From TrEMBL:
InterPro entries: AAA+_ATPase (IPR003593), ABC_transporter-like_ATP-bd (IPR003439), ABC_transporter-like_CS (IPR017871), ABC_transporter_ATP-bind (IPR050166), P-loop_NTPase (IPR027417). Residues 22-237 form the ABC transporter domain. PANTHER family: ALIPHATIC SULFONATES IMPORT ATP-BINDING PROTEIN SSUB, TAURINE IMPORT ATP-BINDING PROTEIN-RELATED. It comes from Acetobacter senegalensis. SMART domains: AAA. It holds the Pfam family ABC_tran. Belongs to the ABC transporter superfamily. GO terms for molecular function: ATP binding; ATP hydrolysis activity. This is ABC transporter related. Keywords: ATP-binding, Cell membrane, Membrane, Nucleotide-binding, Translocase, Transport.
Amino acid sequence: MNHIISNGEKGQGLLVRERADVRISGLTKRFGDGPAVLDHLSLNIPAGEFVALLGRSGSGKSTLLRTLAGLDPVEYGDVVRPTAVSVVFQESRLLPWRRVWQNVVLGQKGPEAKKRALQVLTEVGLVHRVDAWPLTLSGGEAQRVALARALVRDPSFLMLDEPFAALDALTRIQMQALVLTLWRKHQCTTLLVTHDVDEALVLADRVLVLEHGKIKVDLPVPLSRPRRHAHPVFEELRSELLQALGVQNS
Ligand SMILES: Nc1ncnc2c1ncn2[C@@H]1O[C@H](COP(=O)(O)OP(=O)(O)OP(=O)(O)O)[C@@H](O)[C@H]1O
């Protein structure tokens, strides 16, 4: 059943429904009297697609994601997205006074909840830390718990806001591989916000660049996975994206 969460002054606002595709049309967002951060932005993400969103700092990536998640209101325009969504942020946002498994199934108690936590913690390779306290986890482990907490809700739309930005290079590569495995298994529509062009090209079916409140570049990645950085098409796409971001390609 469709359910309108917030009625826009113009457009329908945010509409949630069972289907797993995402449709955005004419989305406009400004803070106070400032310029439009999102300016009549339109975008469709078919069910199951993995999309990466790049853009310079301050270009509105997090604002778009927060709006899709329902954390910021839709004031102008229409957003239609699946009911079941999960978001993973750069920081794991775990409650330090709850054990790992309790953080995963926040609010649920009893043996069934713990069993479910064990299932998803196994998927993210962290079942051995099920009873640990968050403060004893490494940064990578904490993000695995955040991923498990996202998965436990069985999302049909998964949003990742620079989830690996604070991790070292090796851990980031391991986490990228994990995200691909989880995406394949769960087949959820996925939107990854990142600053890392190579990360976008390794993971996504399609890479977007946000600029002046609009999608400036919408680039399909016609490469099978696993992807090699040295592949000529990979290098071509990297150059194109770096140019779009105004970065010199050395
Ligand atoms: N709550 C807010 N109040 C006022 N301005 C805001 C608010 N949130 C974001 N902005 C402004 O909106 C613009 C876009 O911010 P946003 O965080 O979406 O960009 P971003 O592309 O995610 O940046 P970064 O890559 O640095 O994380 C920025 O100019 C920011 O200052």
